[in-house]
Amino acid sequence: MHKPVRTLDELAVLVERLERKLLNSPRLHVKDVCLRYCISKSTFYRLRRRRKLPPPSLVLNGPLWTLEDLERFEAAARIRDRRTKLSRPAVPVLSRD
After folding, report:
1. In this predicted structure, what is the pLDDT of residue 86?
2. Residue 69, in any domain of the structure
3. pTM (two decimals)
């Protein structure tokens, strides 16, 4: 089924919201994501192929992620630790500091 046609006003609001999000949130490159999760680039690309990492938020000269998108993915990708019976992130999480 086709998506409904949007008016110019609706599109203008959508574009403004996306621009604000891009301007106000830090963008992370592949190297930054690797540092966040303490993984090598080869591991990064392997995890990305297996869809164990979120898709990039934006692609310019290369893929870019926002910290917000990574944190949302981390919260959704919680797994059960068999030893402690507690939930833990599926990937290591480093703080914003």
Report:
1. 45
2. yes
3. 0.58
